[in-house]
Amino acid sequence: MKETLTVVKIGGNVVDDPAALDAFVGEFSRLRGPKILVHGGGKEATRLSKRLEIPTVMIEGRRVTSRETLDVVTMVYAGLVNKRIVSKLQAAGCDALGLSGADGGAVRATMRPKEPRDYGFVGDIRPEGVNTDLIERLIDGGIVPVFCAIMHDGEGTLLNCNADSVASAIALGMARVRPVRLVYCFEQPGVMADIERPDSVIAEITPTSYATLKENGTVSGGMIPKIENALAAVASGVESVSIRMASALNDPDAGTTIRP
Amino acid sequence: MKETLTVVKIGGNVVDDPAALDAFVGEFSRLRGPKILVHGGGKEATRLSKRLEIPTVMIEGRRVTSRETLDVVTMVYAGLVNKRIVSKLQAAGCDALGLSGADGGAVRATMRPKEPRDYGFVGDIRPEGVNTDLIERLIDGGIVPVFCAIMHDGEGTLLNCNADSVASAIALGMARVRPVRLVYCFEQPGVMADIERPDSVIAEITPTSYATLKENGTVSGGMIPKIENALAAVASGVESVSIRMASALNDPDAGTTIRP
Q1: Nearest-CA distance from B230 to chain A in Å?
Q2: Which tens digit of pLDDT belongs to each residue from B67-80?
Q3: What local confidence, expressed as pLDDT, does residue B59 receive?
Q4: Cβ separation of A103 and B80 shorter than 8 Å?
Q5: What count of other Cβ atoms lies within 10 Å of the Cβ of residue B217?
Q6: What per-residue confidence (pLDDT) applies to B175?
């Protein structure tokens, strides 16, 4: 039996805050066993677009990606943010290697259909698009892959993807070859029974308990797709999905764990 | 005896011209044996700096790299240009994987001393800074490393380096573990006896013939450091250095070859 792989996803709340990023780099370096980091881009792409007078258009939280916007997100996510994280991890003794989906054909995506809405150069990933051979070889060599959410279609076109979806597709893809757990770093300590009380974190959610939590309104709004994606991941072979604060990465009791 | 590794360097004349880049991608994909690509950034960094109203300061052809300029070159070289080349190579069937020096600790550089001139975040590389273990593992796995000229100091700081120097340092570093030839793609067919006559390419230069060429003025100006660097490389273990047009990459008779 191969060792469990941990796939960790961080978003803007870590990437945009130098102190939070430095603290996370320390936590992530200490995390034992084989691991992969997936990062979002935070607000830097929006800031750069503004300075370049490229309009930012969002539909349901997804960035509409024109050719010009694709250049901006490729620069910011695959260049600035990815190399900043990798160089910090290297300095902390973690043998990080930054990857877009194009690198080594690591992850292939498909451009989202133009109907009903045209998102431009936006891609979606299926677990079969994950090059498990390459990732296994890197991991077996002691490398820690650090993915940005820029993928490719294998035909020369880069595609902007959602970092949460990239993390879950990589976890699902890798689950075909070894045990995998997925950790979403979140701005709150987990899924809370009472949003006003950080000590009300629900330790475990299963399909059965989720039905109740949704019915009685404990889980609502943006948490619904997050937990439903997590439930789909554990239903398809990922061992567990944890939602927790980045600062609690190595705390065995922290956050909410979603199990099958 | 291991197979000869070819290290190819391309600059702005290829990177800035979409048609030239597409043609090069085809040529490079057909190149046999293990290979590494090193690319410059072309004029894109200067263009982006201008749009962001960040002044571009050059001293003796080297970009003075402030913190802001470092962000620009990291975005353009490690993000935009690197991923554009990698995705095109992948589409052409070449298993390219983009790297900065930070990735996998591939190449370590040292910040240039602040005296006599302060270049800011500019680094220099010695062949000992090249992580031959990582590069050998990638190459043995059929991967084609594609390097931009952004390196790191191993302590969390990214450094802007000269792409010609990166190519020669990687060639020299790798020459300690296998035979290496180095190819500089150039905007002219090679070193010409008469600058007006493209058919006057000097096929071979050795230390002895170079002394004559320099003395009689055949080689002058910007060609002097180029050839002297090439002579230094072949004196230190690189088998040969070729200076040729990118479009002639696979032509056995093209360009000027510098030999020990």
Answers
A1: 30
A2: 999 999 999 999 99
A3: 84
A4: no
A5: 7
A6: 97
- Angle at which helix A223-235 crosses helix A163-174, to 10 degrees, equals 10
In A126-196, which residue ranges form alpha helices assigned H by DSSP? 132-140, 163-174
What is the CB-side half-sphere exposure of residue A127 using CA atoms within 13 A?
A: 13
**Token output for A9:** 């996803």
Q: Which CATH superfamily is domain A5-258 in?
A: Acetylglutamate kinase-like (3.40.1160.10)
Q: Please state, as a whole number, how many other Cβ atoms lie within 10 Å of the Cβ of residue A19.
A: 7
pLDDT at residue A61 tops 80: no
Give me the pLDDT at residue B1, please: 80
For chain B, domain boundaries: 5-258
Average pLDDT over residues A224-252: 95
- Kindly state the DSSP code that residue B81 receives in the 8-state scheme: I
Q: What is the mean pLDDT of residues B40-51?
A: 91
Which of A22, A83, A107, A161 to mutate against chain B (most B CBs within 10 Å)? A83
Beta bridge partners of B257: B204, B242
Nearest CA in chain A to B91: A155
pLDDT in tens, A30-58: 999 999 999 998 799 999 999 999 998 98
Q: Does any CB of chain A come closer than 8 Å to the CB of residue B86?
A: yes
Number of other CB atoms surrounding residue B208 within 10 Å:
8
Count of alpha carbons within 13 angstroms of residue A179, beta-carbon side: 7
- Closest partner residue to A79 (CB to CB) among B78, B97, B141 is B78
Q: How far does Cα B229 stand from its chain's mean position?
A: 12
Burial B110-138 (b: 16+ CB within 10 A, else e): ebbeeeeeebbbbbbbebebbbbebbbbb
Query: Please, is A217 exposed, middle or buried when counting C-beta atoms within 10 Å of its C-beta (0-12, 13-18, 19+)?
Result: exposed
Task: Sort strands A144-147 and B240-245 into parallel, antiparallel or unpaired.
Answer: unpaired
Smallest CA-to-CA distance from A163 within A4, A14, A3, A5 is with A14
Residue entry with tokens 């700081």: B157
Asked if A97 lies within 8 A of B99 by C-beta distance, the reply is yes
* Nearest-Cα residue of chain B relative to residue A140: B137
Q: What was the pLDDT predicted at B225?
A: 85
Q: Is the peptide bond before B116 cis (omega within 30 degrees of 0)?
A: yes
Nearest CA in chain A to B106: A97
- How does the average pLDDT of chain B come out, rounded? 95
Comparing CB atoms, the residue among B48, B74, B91 nearest residue A83 is: B74
pTM: 0.96
Instruction: Report the sign of the C-alpha dihedral through residues B57, B61, B66, B72, in that order.
Output: positive
pLDDT surpasses 90 at A198: no
Cis peptide leading into residue A116 (ω within 30°): yes
**Longest alpha-carbon distance in chain A:** 53
Measure the CA angle with vertex B83, ends B82 and B86; round to 5°. Answer: 90
Q: What does the alpha-carbon distance between residue B109 and residue B117 come to, in Å, rounded to a whole number?
A: 18
